[in-house]
Amino acid sequence: MSASSAFNDEKGGSSSVGEPEYGHDPASGGIFSSDYKRHDDLKEMLDSNKDSLKLEAMKRIVAMVARGKNASDLFPAVVKNVACKNIEVKKLVYVYLVRYAEEQQDLALLSISTFQRGLKDPNQLIRASALRVLSSIRVTIIVPIMMLAIKEAASDMSPYVRKTAAHAIPKLYSLDPEQKDQLIEVIEKLLADKTTLVAGSVVMAFEEVCPERIDLIHKNYRKLCNLLIDVEEWGQVVIINMLTRYARTQFLNPNINESLLEEGGGGEKTFYGSEEETDEDDEDKDKKAEVATMAKRKPYVMDPDHRLLLRNTKPLLQSRNAAVVMAVAQLYFHLAPKAEVGVIAKALVRLLRSHSEVQYVVLQNVATMTIKRRGMFEPYLKSFYIRSTDPTQIKVLKLEVLTNLANETNISTILREFQTYIKSMDKDFVAATIQAIGRCATNIGEVRDTCLNGLVQLLSNRDELVVAESVVVIKKLLQMQPEKHSDIIKHMAKLIDNIQVPMARASILWLIGEYCEHVPKISPDVLRKMAKSFTNEEDIVKLQIINLAAKLYLTNSKQTKLLTQYVLNLAKYDQNYDIRDRARFIRQLIVPTEKSGALSKYAKKLFLALKPAPVLESPFKDRDHFQLGSLSHLLNAKAGGYQELPDWPEAAPDPSVRNVEVPEWTKCSSREKRKEKKVEKPFYSDSEGESGPTESADSESDSANGSESVSGSEASGSGSESEESEEGSESEEEEEEDEEDEEKDKKKKKKELKKKPVQESESEQSSEEEERKPERKSKPRKSDSETESDDEEESESESSQSESDESESEAEVKKKKKAAQSKPPAKPVKTDGKKEKKEMSLLDLDDFEPAPSPQVTPVNSFLSSSLVTDLEGLSLSDSVLSPATIAPSSALKSYELLHRITGEGLSVEYCFSRQPFSPDANMVAVQIQFTNNATSDTKNLHMEDVKLQSGMRVKEFPEIELLPAGETTTAVMGIDFCDSTQAANFQLCTHTRKFFVSIQPPVGELMRPIFLTENEFKKEQGQLMGMNEITERLTLDVKCRNEHTIVQRVTTAANLSRVPCGSDKECRFAGRTVTSSSLVLVTVATKAEGAAQLTVNCEKMVIGTMLVKDILQALTQ
Amino acid sequence: MGPTEMIHSLFLINHTGDIFLEKHWKSVISRSVCDYFLEVKEKAVEPENVPPVLQTPHHYLISIYRDKLFFLSVIQTEVPPLFVIEFLHRVADTFQDYFGECSESIIKDNVVTVYELLEEMLDNGFPLATESNVLKEMIKPPTILRSVVNTLTGSSNVGDKLPTGQLSNIPWRRAGVKYTNNEAYFDVIEEIDAILDKSGMTVFAEIQGVIEACTRLSGMPDLTLSFMNPRLLDDVSFHPCVRFKRWEAERVLSFIPPDGNFTLMTYHVSAQNLVAIPVYVKQNISFFETGSCGRLDITIGPKQTMGKMVEGLMVTVHMPKAVLSVNLTASQGNYTYDLATKVLVWDIGKLNPQKLPNLRGTLSVQSGAPTPEENPALDIKMKIQQLAISGLKVNRLDMYGEKYKPFKGVKYMTKAGKFQVRT
After folding, report:
1. Residues of A (224-283) whose Cβ lies below 8 Å from B
2. pTM of the entire structure?
3. Which of these, B64, B140, B138, lies nearest to B97 by C-alpha position?
4. Closest C-alpha among B135, B149, B50, B145 to residue B95
5. Cβ-Cβ contacts under 8 Å, A315 against chain B
6. Among A1063, A1058, A1061, which residue's Cα sits nearest to residue A1014?
7. CA distance A150 to A134
8. Which residues of chain B have a pLDDT value below 70?
9. What ipTM describes this predicted complex?
10. CA of B354 vs chain A CAs: smallest distance (Å)
C-alpha cells in the first residue's frame, strides 16, 4: 500500500517535469526545483532515526529505480544506511547500492567495511548476502578485497556461502579479467565440492571464466554425472551443456559406422555441384570409406563414462523444466548412439503443450533434428498438426517439421492435412504451406504430379498472394520435367494478365522464356503484351522481360525481332542502371554486328543452356553444427561467447584421467587421533556391563536368548548349513588374493566341499586366518535355517541344523583361541595379557564373549571384520583399536538369488558378508551359497554375461566345478556398486542351464564401518550440514527403547560402527561408502516416551535419504 | 573474455509498448534497447507473433508474453533460449503466486516487493532462488493487514534467516509446517486435444493429464500414490519432489509434497488407446456467392460421455473478417458476437441429451468483399466432472513419516483442451 502511494507520488512528480531523468546527465536532475524538493524530503527521511521513515524513503527510491528514474543524487544519503539494523531497509539499500555504485565509486567505498564485517557474521545468510553485494559492486579498486572474500567464502562451512562464492567468480572476472588465473584456482577448488548446491553454480563460473580448461573436469566428471539428478534445475542445464562439450572431446563417436553408411548411401549431391566439387566429394567419400573400414576393423565399444552420462541424464527428460528437457535432448542428439536418440522425441513433443515461446524454441530444434533423424519423430507426426489458433510463427515451424517428416508412406496423409491449411485465413501461413508442398513434391517423386496438379488448381485462387506463391513454386517444379507440362505453362501464360505480384510475374516470364519452344505460339504474344507494359513493371519483372525477349529472339527471331529491339531500347533508357547494363550486354550478345565478338555464336548456348532444377531445401539443414538448444542454433549465427561443439576425436584420449583416487580412510593422522581418543576413554574397553560395546554385545545375546524368532527375522535367513566351509573358501580368497590362480581355488573348494559333510571345524582349522571370520551368523543363521526349512519342508535341514548347533559352541571356543593366537603377528599389542586388553576393546570383547550361551555368537562377526580391516588397511600396531569393536554388526540378512523351483533344484542365496573384499577394496563382498536340491550333480557353476550400470564392476566368483546332489557350497564375489543401489545383473550358469539373476544391495551395505572419536564425529558432522543432513522424527518401536537394541537395529540395517558418545541419550554411528569413501554419520537421539530423532549426515544425498528410510524402518518396526 | 552473465536486464512492457519496470543485474543498459523489440511488436499484428528471440546489434532480446505483458530480457552472450524463457515464466508465475494476478497495475502497486523478488531470483543474471516456498520465507507475500502493521511498527517483510528449503535436499518444502486439519487433495484433470474434420472424423486426438495437488499436512509427510492402471501413462513429467527411481521401478509416485498447491505430475496417455470423444458436432456453415450473406447451423450432441453429464459447453468461432454481423437463434444458452475481433461465442452450459442445443441463423457479409473461402473452425470447450476419460484411476494414497491421519481426496475431471472442429 505504502509502496503504491509512493509510486503514485513519484509518478505525479515526474510527469510534471516531462520525464527528464534518463538519458540525461545525472546532475541535471537537480535543475528542476520539484526534484530538489522531493529528494530533500527523502534525504530527511533517510537521516531520521526512525526505521519506518527510512523504510518508506527507501521504498520510494527503489520505486524510482524500478521505473528507470535517476536517483543517483541520493547516493550519500542512502549509503549511510548500509549498516541499518532493519533488514528490509538494509536490503533495499543493497539494491540501490548495486545499481549506482559504478557511477559513484568513491562514495561506494564507504560501504565496503560493512560488507567486510558481514563476511564474518555467524549467520550464513548474512555472510552470503554480504559477499553477493560486495561482488556486485562494480568498482575496480576493490578487486583485491573481492578476491580475498571469494577465496575465503570458497572454503566456508556453509554450502550456501560457497555457492555464493561461485556466483561471485564471474562477477569479479568481468570486472577484472586479469584475475583469471587466481579465479581458476578457486573454481578448481569448488569443482571438487561435493554438494549439489554448489555444483551448478561452479560449473556456471567455469563456463564463463575458463570453458577451455576441460582438464579441470576430468576428476569431477563422474561426480558431476552422479550428482546431476539432485542439482537444482538451472544448474542441471548448465552442467548438461558443459558435459556435452566435454564428452565430445573425450569419447568416440558412437555412430561412427552408421553415419558413414548414411552419408555414403544417401548421397544427396548438390545439384549445381560442379565437377571439381564432385571430385572433392569423391575424395571425401574415399576418405570416409577408409575410416569406415578402419572402424569396422576395430569394433566400437562405448566408454563406461560415456554411458554413465547418458544414463544419468535420461531421467531428467521427465523434468518439469523445459530447459532441462531440452538440455538432455540436445545431449542425446549429439552424444547418443543412433538407436537410443529416440527417447528424447516423446519428451520434446510433450513440450509442445507448453507456452508458445517454449514451443517456438522446441520446434526450431525439432526441425533441425528431423533432418538428420527423421524416424525419431515419425510416430508423433500428428502432434505437429496445425490448429487455426496457433500463432503464425508456430504454424510455420510445425509446417517445417511436417515437411521434413514427409516420406513415401505418409505423404498422402500430410498432403490431405496441407489441403486444409491452404484454405486458412492466415495468408502468410498459406504461402508457407505452398512452399512446403513444393518441397514435398521435389523430395518425393511419387507425388510430384499430384502436388503439381494441386498447385495448378491454386492458380485460380481468389487470393493473389496464394496464386503468386503457387506460381513461384510451380516454376521450380516444372524445371524438373518441362516437356510434360506445356499445358501448365500455357495456363500460366494466361495468368500474366491478372497477377500483379512482381515475383510471380517474373517467374511466369522466366518459365515462358525458358520453355518458349514448348509454347511457340503463345510466347511471342506474351512478349508483345509485356513490351507494352514494360515501363510500368517492377525491376525484377523488367529483367525477365529482357530475358524473355532475348530467348525468343534466339529461337524465333522472325516474329520477335522488332519486339526485342523495342524492349531493349526501352531498357536502354531505364532509370535502373542494372537494367540498362543488362540491355546493352544482351544486345551485344544476341544481335550480330561486324564488331560483335566471338561470343555471339554461342548466344543460344548461353541463354538456353539446360538448367538444373533448384533443390528446395530446408532452412534447417546443417544447423546441427551448432549445439542444439543454444542461442546460436536458434539464430543460425554464432552468438558471442558461444563455445563450439567440438568434433569427435579420432581416437579416444586416455580414459584414466577421470579415475579418482579413493582417499584412504585409514590415514595416519586419523589413526593417531584414534589413539588419543582411546586414551581418553578407556571406559569402553573395560566397563563390561554398561559401555557401548558391551551393551551391544549384550543386545546380541539378549535377542538371541529372548526370542529366536526376532533374531531370525532380522537375520532373514541365509539358511545354510555349510557355513564353515563357506568361510573357508572366503578366507582363502582373501588370503591368496589375486596371485592365487583360480584353479587352485577351485581345487581347494572341491576339497572343502568333500570335507564339509564330515565336519566344519576341520576346514576351520585348515586355514590360518579363520579368526577373521565371524562365526557371525551362526546363531541367526541357525534360527533362520529353521524357519526356512520349515518353509521348504526339507528333512535334510533339520539334521544339519542340529549339527551346526553343536558345532557352534565348539567353533566359538576355537575361535577365541585362535583369535588370540593369530592376532599376535599382526598386532603384537593384543597378545599381551589381560591388562592390555582392558584398553583394547577388541580383546575385551574376546574376553567376555564366551560367557553367554552358545547362541550368542554373532558378536564375533564384527570382531572378525574389524580384524580384517586391520590386516588390510592398518598394518600398524595401533590398529587394534579398530572401530568396529564398538559397533557390532548383528546377524546378516540373506536374500534369495535363485529359487529352488526356478533353479530346477538349484537354490542360491546371497548375503553381504560385511567383510572387506580383499581383491578390491572398493567392492562389496557378496557371499553366495549354492544348494543343490536336485537329484543329480550340478557342474561348472559360474557367472556369465554380467550386465552393469556403467562405473560398476564385478569380480566373479571362481567357477565351482562340481556341486553334488544334496550338497551346499558357498563362494564369494565382489561388486563395486559405485555407491548406488543399482542391481548387478548376470547369468548364473551350470553345465546345462543359464539363469538370469540380479543382486541389489540395500543401501546399508554400501558402506563400511569406520572409527571416529566423539570430537571427530562432531567436527565431520559440522561439515555435513544443510543439504547433507537429513533429520526425521520417529517413535521407537516398543521393543526398541533401550540403547543396545537401537545399536543392534541400526547396525543390522547398515554396516556402520558405533561412535562413542558422552550422552546416553544419543547413539552415533559412522561409516564410509565403499566406493567413494564418503562419510556416513548417523545419530539417533532418544527422548521421552520412545520419541527419537534420527539424523543422517552424508554428502551423498541419495544414500543419505535411502539410509534414513531403512533405519527408520528398522527402528520403528 | 568469455560470457559474463546470463540475464543482463529485464524490462516489463505493457501491450501498448510502455516500459513500466526495469531491473539490471549488471551495468545499466539503456531502455532504448527495447526499441528494436517495439518495432517488431508494431509490425506483428498479434502479440503472440512477436518472435521470442530477437537479435540487435549488441544484444539479444528474449521475451515472453504473459497476461498482456511482455517480459523482455536483455542478453549479451550465448545462453540456451529456453533457459531464459523458462525463467521468465517462473518470474510471472511467482508474481501470480504472490499477488494473485500478474498485471501492470498490481506490479506497479507492489513494485518494491517485485524488486525484492527479482533480486532474490537472480544473482548476476543466474537463477538463485526460484522455489516459491523459499522465496516466501525470504520475502513475505503482501497482505493488507501486514502492510498496515509494518507501516506502523516499521517491521519488515524480509526474513533474516536463510530459508530452510534453500539448504535442505527438499528445497520445495519448508520445515515446521503445522495444520490443525491435515488434508491432501488430488485433482486428476485430463484434457482432450483433438482435431475433428468436417465429417466428424477424428483427425488427431490425444489425452493430456495433470495431477494438481493441494496438500496441507503437518511435519514431513512422505506420500505414496499408486494407480490401478499405471500402464496407461505413456509420457510423464514430475514435480522435482517425485522420486523418479521409485516410479521407474514400481510405477508409484513417492514424494514429500510441497506445502500448498502444486502440480504433482503431467502425463500423456499412450497413443495406442483410442481416445473417446465425448461430443459430436453437426455443423453447416456456408457463404453464398451472391447476396452477401451466409448460413450457420450448429448442433451438439453427446457421443461417448461414459454416462456423465457434459457441462460448461462452449463453442467459439473466429469468423472471417468479412462477416459483419450475425443473426442467430440459440435453442439453449446465449451467444455473443464481437464485431471488432469477429469472434462468435456460444455459451451453452449443460448438454441435455434429450433436447440437443442448436444455434442457427444467418451471417451477413460485407458487400463487395469476396466470399470467404474457408469456413471457420469451431473451438469447443467442455467439462465432465467425476471422470478421467482415459480411465486412469488412483488406487491408493498412503502417508508415512507422520502419525496423524490426514483427510484424503481424489477428484477426477475431463476437459476439452485444444479441441477443434474443422468445417
Report:
1. 229-230, 232-234, 237, 241
2. 0.66
3. B140
4. B135
5. 244-245, 248
6. A1061
7. 10
8. 1-5, 143-169, 270-273, 291
9. 0.90
10. 32
